[in-house]
Amino acid sequence: MSVVQHEEEEDIDLPTVGAAVAGRRRRPWLGLALQIAVILLAGGVWWLASTLLPVGTMPSPAETFARLGALALTPEFWIAVGITVATFLAGLIICILIGIPLGLAIGASTFATQSTRLVFDFLRTIPPIAILPLLLLLLGAQFQMVLVLVIGGAIWPILIQSIYAARQGEALLVDVARTFKVPRRWFIRHIFLPGALPFIMTGLRVGTTICLLLTITGELLGGAPGIGFEIADAMAFYDNSRMYAYVLVSAFLGLLVNGAFWAAQRRMLHWHPSIRREGTR
Amino acid sequence: MRVSNSLKMIALEIWLPILIVVVWWFASANSTSLYFPPLQAILESFAENWLDPQEAIQNLAPSLLLLGSGYLLALVGGVVLGTLFGIVTPIEHATRPVLETLRAVPGVALLPIFIVLFGIDAQMKILLIAFGSFWPIFLNTIDGVRAVEPLLLDVSRVFRVGRARRLFRIVLPSAGPQIFAGARTALAIALIIMVVAETVGGSGGIGYFLLDAQRNFAITAMWGAILALGILGYVLNIFFRIIERRVLRWHRLQQARLETAK
Hints:
The structure holds 2 protein chains of 2 kinds. Chain A is mainly α. Chain A contains 13 helices and no strands. In chain A, helix 8 runs antiparallel to helix 10. The two termini of chain A are about 25 Å apart. The relative contact order of chain A is 0.10. Chain B is an all-alpha fold. Chain B is about 85% helix and about 0% strand. The two termini of chain B are about 25 Å apart. In chain B, about 35% of the residues are buried. The mean pLDDT of chain B is about 85. At the A-B interface, helix 1, helix 3, helix 6, helix 7 and helix 9 of A face helix 1, helix 4, helix 5, helix 6 and helix 7 of B.
């Protein structure tokens, strides 16, 4: 709590805030050094845990990274990564291509929105993993099975947020546009889409997370080729360093996906307060 | 007038679901396909395994216990830490790379690691659910706390509003909608991880039931379990929405005021 107070005390006086910001700008290396220190600390905790736990439960960071390096030289590694990435991307793109236009179209009509609400609400809340056994029996342990699973799970947040987005026109803006007899295309381009975009992006953010989670899950539980399968396989052989190496790879994939998403969001929503504020700091 | 209006609303909302069920019922009535049994058979299996009190308790109680404990842990941890990190930007800044990496790990990929570390008991499953559903709540709380309208904070500063008061009266309420958005995502993720975690070790629960049905090629029972999971998810979501409406009542009122202002 004392830390909180300190921060807020700094914030109370406006000139102090200015000084703090200027101070940070003069010493950007301080922030970076702190980040690196925390990374090293996390590595240290991992190393410590690996030495304290019974042998065979947790490989040390060095062991894991060495194994990762060795794996990266094998073609099997890149095939597994390639299949996972391709399944993830294909699933996400199909979800976007179906979810956003369909959602905006449904949202534009009150009748369609109300008629479909219960159905989508119900379908959305079924944990997609529930249909995995059925998909396994129907499609086998193949990437197509994972793809269907991914689409079945990740399309709902995108679709539902798009419906919501289409209905979310700020009343005042709509009225002003009507008063000034703004042309329809200009209205869509400059008022409707910018207003809808933050909501669509929220859906995409959730959808992207679920997409990757389900890709790995489908492979891990369904035994379809990819990173998930490699993790399950390593576990079956009690090959801990390989297991950790592949979990690291999945984390790296997640980082990459999140990073790409944030970059896209910053570009598209640079005017939004949540991002604007980050930029001015 | 009012009654007929609300009747119209209800009719508008339920005609499509009813149509779908009716079409499903008649289209599958004479189905001999192994994978797509008649809806009637699915409903019978559903009633047998999920409506009979004894069976329902055996199949549902372990799942709900895991889900409840894990989700609650994530909720408390996520909001408390998220608020702290949202306010104290230096901490957030310094830990960002590590947090982003941890957050990026798909929860299910940690299942094998958690098994090795914590065994296959309920404790492991609760921790896995908590870990997986922690991130959306935590990160949304940070974002929400940071996205408080700058003007509001400036005004409160000018009027010298105390720190605790500012936290509970301005920061948390205005971050509320975003925290709830995160909590909703977390609920969906918690359900997925719950089912996955339950396929490990044999302690009952929906996930175990599904796995068992799959192993025995009991397709009808599997469909029944899918239906049960859907209903469980739906009911949980309704509970969630009721709580959200209560807590964010001011937000809804404000929106309504903006609407009527036009």
